[in-house]
TrEMBL record:
Gene that specifies this protein: hslO
Organism annotation: Massilia aquatica
Pfam name, any one: HSP33
Alphabetical UniProt keywords: Chaperone, Cytoplasm, Disulfide bond, Redox-active center, Zinc
Protein name: 33 kDa chaperonin
Domain of life of the organism encoding this protein: Bacteria
Annotated localization: Cytoplasm
SUPFAM superfamilies to which the protein is assigned, alphabetical: Hsp33 domain (SSF64397), HSP33 redox switch-like (SSF118352)
Family to which this protein belongs: Belongs to the HSP33 family.
Disulfide bridge positions per record: 250-252, 283-286
Post-translational changes noted in the entry: Under oxidizing conditions two disulfide bonds are formed involving the reactive cysteines. Under reducing conditions zinc is bound to the reactive cysteines and the protein is inactive.
Biological role stated in the UniProt entry: Redox regulated molecular chaperone. Protects both thermally unfolding and oxidatively damaged proteins from irreversible aggregation. Plays an important role in the bacterial defense system toward oxidative stress.
Length: 318
């Protein structure tokens, strides 16, 4: 069941008189758009769906016009997970599973991505309107945690110094999540008032986390946002904001695919053209097909047009 006329929904709220905020997210239509383009094993769907919900929750607090890109580079049967969400909650996601491997339905995050302990978790903040010479911010850390929620909690505490708790769940129909975050304390108060305020905020934070921790994964998957909010926080005084609505959107363009080919270099592109006649590239996110013949490729290397980085670029089809 989804809310607001079956739209995917992200609902922000804040606890009155305490620097604690929360968000619920429910993603079904966008999730179906992603899954209908790929056939992933059940365990891969679960992790990718949880990552999708987490990206929406984190993107809702972006302070710039741009996108957050979450990637896991694995050393197991799953080689790559990518989720992208911009400040307008437009989302896309994909996974790369090694050829010829069998993935158990109950495979854990470690089984899928980190059996050798070499997996890396990457978060990139990519402004849409970059200043000259500005590069996206990128944080890269080991995959620290046994599930997606723990991985992100550890990342946020390490890189943002923010106490963040997440509850995530996904199946074939929906990806849902709950985020609670303890915000930095206010300054400028006298010592006694500040100590009392800090104690009250800590009590509110601990109580909110305790209530949210009663949430079972099956309950999270099967219950709409309004019901969950009433069930968990009915005794709390919270302020609810207007909901936002995630949607599927792929930002691939012919220009970006051309830039990806330019990154390969003229020698490699010409060699592939001699072998294949033309280059065929399918977008990993939406499946859109792009074809480049010898004339198209020659035009790519004319002039000094800057090359953009295409995250999770698609494969050239041989």
């Amino acid at each position: 069941m989804t809310t607001d006329n079956n739209k995917d929904t992200l609902q922000k709220f804040i606890f009155d008189n305490a620097a604690v905020r929360g968000e619920f997210v429910e993603i079904s239509s966008t999730w179906h758009e992603i899954l209908q383009r790929h056939s992933y094993p059940p365990a891969v769907k679960t992790v990718l769906g949880e990552m999708l919900a987490a990206a929406a929750l984190l993107s809702a607090n972006l302070k710039f016009n741009g996108a957050i890109v979450m990637q896991i580079h694995g050393d197991g049967p799953v080689r790559l997970l990518v989720v992208e969400c911009d400040s307008g909650l437009r989302m896309r996601a994909t996974a790369k599973v090694a050829d010829g491997v069998s993935v158990a339905d109950d495979a854990s995050l470690t089984d899928l991505l980190n059996p050798g302990g070499k997996a890396r978790f990457v978060i990139t903040l990519d402004p849409a309107d970059k200043m000259p010479g500005q590069q996206p911010y990128q944080g890269i850390v080991p995959l620290d945690g046994d599930d997606m929620a723990t991985v992100i909690e550890n990342y946020m505490l390490r890189s943002e110094q923010l106490d963040t708790r997440l509850w995530l769940a996904a199946d074939d129909n929906v990806a849902r999540g709950l985020l609670l975050q303890k915000l930095p304390r206010h300054s400028g108060k006298d010592d006694q008032i500040k100590q009392e305020s800090e104690a009250d905020e800590l009590e509110t934070w601990n109580r909110a986390v305790m209530l949210a921790s009663t949430l079972k994964q099956e309950e999270l998957l099967s219950t709409d946002i309004q019901t969950l909010m009433n069930r968990l926080f009915w005794e709390e005084t919270i302020r609810v904001f207007d909901p936002a609505h995630p949607q599927f959107h792929c930002s691939c363009t012919r220009e970006k695919v051309g830039n990806m080919l330019k990154m390969l270099g003229r020698e490699e592109v010409d060699g592939a053209l001699d072998e294949l006649g033309q280059l065929a590239i399918d977008c990993d996110f939406c499946g859109k097909h792009y074809a480049f013949d010898k004339v198209d490729c020659a035009q790519l290397f004319v002039g000094d047009t800057p090359v953009e980085v295409l995250i999770a670029a698609s494969d050239v089809k041989h």
